[in-house]
Amino acid sequence: MAEVRAGREVREPETEFAERSRLVEGVRAYGLIVAMWLRSTMAYRASFVMTALGNFLVTGFDFVTIMLMFGHVDALGGFTLPEIALLYGASATAFGLSDLVLGSMDRLGRRVRDGTLDTLLVRPVPVLAQVAADRFALRRLGRITQGLLVLGYALLTLDIAWTPLKVVMLPLMVLSGAAIFGAVFVAGAAFQFYAQDASEVQSAFTYGGTTLLQYPPSIFAQDLVRGVTFVVPLAFVSWLPALYVLGRDYPVDLPRWVAFLPPVVAAVCWVLAGLAWRAGLRAYRSTGS
Amino acid sequence: MGSRRQMPAHYARALWRNEGGDVRLYAVVAAGGFRRHATYRVATFAGVFTNTVFGFILAYTYIALWDERPHLGGYDMSQALTYVWLGQALLMTCAMMGGGFEDELMERIRTGDIAVDLYRPADLQLWWLAGDLGRAAFHLLGRGIVPMVLGALAFDLALPGSPWTWLAFLVSVALGVVVSFGVRFLVALSAFWLLDGAGAMQIAWLAGLFFSGMLLPLPLFPGVLGEVARALPWSSLLQVPADVFLGRYAGWDLLRAYAFQGGWAVALLLAGRMLQSVATRRVVVQGG
């Protein structure tokens, strides 16, 4: 990294990047790379429409499964279909957002293996922004769309005694949830610096996490619920805030105000993920191929 | 270049001739498929971890469902849980979400490398089938056993007592792999016309996930949808092997289940063969 940073200082005129913070610079670079991939995607419009539709359908299967289950039962773990739809919609939308923005990060292991990560290191742009924007896939709007549809269905059919706090909770939950999942994506990518072939471990937490959150916590073993509350805090994505909106109890005994912690949890997760990313990037050794 | 002249016209005859003489060749290809996938140990470990996590999540959802409705679809609780873990164990083996040879074959068609394959003194379809069988054998051992054992340790599963049931299950899985191959081979060949087969692949992938019984056992699908799902080839990938494992077929019923899988396998392989002959005769191979 040291050489790379030095290289940039030599090549780039001081005026261009010097006064910008590294964050702004990263976001700007991310936007530029994303715009490039968007142009490239739109060159094959038919293919884009088909894959976006496919993404919509395949992620929608999760809800189709739940509907098939409700063809046989009236409640699952004491929750009705609209209540589960709220949990599902919140989790799927939050995950869809972070998948759209950062989902390409699970390709990092491949780049480490085939040596193309080196190309990213010599460019005068933060590596995280480059890896995150790599092959930006707009088709992932499919998942967000179906998540929002299910969320809309839940809000239309649920009979909730709305308070201002509950109204605020909805956007808060989706955005913080997306941030928490985003931190998981970054931490997972950092792990791939060490275990290049292990991108599937990340899937267990990202795709597995969103599958878990689509069901009510009451059906899972206590230890599992504690694990996703205190160890990998996915419960803050949708379970805790959504149960507050529904006025239902959480299986693990926690005070009510905990439902408002998702932004704090997201911030802590990002700090930890950032540290993990730095450590991973420092430990990176090129395969040399 | 046109590949019209290089290919023999009578594929069926070539197939039988090859099968007699070159069994050893295809055995070597199959062994290569096995070894190739066995190389990626970390990836295998990671995959086992993910299968196990999903197995746990799905197991709890099934427990909630069967708590409400015991004997749903004719399965008791432990049979339902067994079904979950069989699904995780066979997900890669029967390539329900793709991940076999088809990406590679499609890429070879797109780049024109397929011309080299067509020159080889081996049959294209049998070559890839052998490789895919080797892959499936590795995935059954490498990705199937550990999640199944972990599932059996954590939950009360209905494991067959008789070794014959295990054997019958393995036969059914093998037939399921061939059916899965048959579908994916057809999809891969579509690249001769479409060049970018990603869309076709995605449709096949969606159908495989939905109709194999991976989401929910097919007896739980309502009315006509259930009947259609059970008649389609994809039920051979998970539903039929799982029912064999759970001892739902005995005697003639078992043979009927095999006949269903075998029938689809033969039909799909023949369709693949016909499509292959049309493709190699009519389509001009892409030049690089």
Q: What are the secondary-structure elements of chain B, in order, as H or E? A: HHHHHHHHHHHHH
Distance separating the two termini of chain B: 11 Å
- What global shape of chain A is seen? globular
Main β-sheet description of chain A: none
**Unreliable stretches covering 5 or more consecutive residues of chain B:** 1-13
Report the total helices of chain B: 13
Output the structural class of chain B: mainly alpha
What percentage of amino acids of chain A are in beta strands? under 5%
Report helical residue fraction of chain A. Answer: over 70%
Low-confidence sequence ranges of chain A? 1-15
Shape of chain B: globular
Task: Set down the secondary structure blueprint.
The complex is a heterodimer of chains A (289) and B (288).
Chain A: H1 2-11, H2 14-17, H3 22-42, H4 45-69, H5 81-102, H6 108-114, H7 117-121, H8 127-133, H9 141-157, H10 164-194, H11 199-213, H12 222-231, H13 239-246, H14 262-283
Chain B: H1 11-21, H2 23-38, H3 41-68, H4 77-93, H5 102-111, H6 114-119, H7 124-154, H8 163-189, H9 191-194, H10 198-211, H11 223-231, H12 239-245, H13 252-282
Helix pairs in contact in B: 2-7, 3-4, 3-7, 4-7, 5-8, 7-8, 8-12, 8-13
